[in-house]
Design brief:
Length: 132
């Protein structure tokens, strides 16, 4: 049911973080979406946090930026998302969210993975309505 809703209702893709083979790439569905000119909503934490804080970023954001350096990565803070779409629920609850958009980011040519993820995380935290 979850996969159906994400695929058919939201035109979304799920990332399977367990590689079926060493050669498989968990980000392949997102790379294909970018190749097709689609936009992505990407949660760089790799999961939803039931709390108000921000979890550490996974490396997928870096690998997407590395594979598609021409794509702008726009940080978006979605306030109240953990209440509207609680982890484990299939459908959103009828509550309000507010979104804040930051300046687009791109991977700098000499930037390490850690530097890029830190800069991306800081850009997202700067959009939070209250300090976390």
């Amino acid at each position: 049911m979850r996969r159906y809703i994400i695929n058919r209702v939201f035109n979304g893709v799920l990332v399977d973080r367990k590689r079926s083979t060493p050669e498989s790439n968990p980000l392949q569905p997102m790379l294909e979406a970018l190749e097709n000119g689609d936009s992505l909503i990407f949660f760089p934490e790799g999961t939803r946090n039931p709390e108000d804080g921000l979890l550490p970023f996974k490396s997928g954001l870096y690998h997407l930026a590395q594979s598609y350096p021409q794509v702008d990565l726009v940080p978006v803070w979605i306030a109240n998302l953990n209440r509207v779409m609680p982890k484990g629920r299939m459908l959103p609850l009828p509550l309000l969210c507010t979104t804040s958009f930051g300046a687009p980011l791109r991977l700098d040519s000499e930037e390490s993975k850690e530097q890029f993820l830190t800069r991306s995380r800081d850009a997202l935290l700067a959009l939070a309505p209250e300090p976390l």
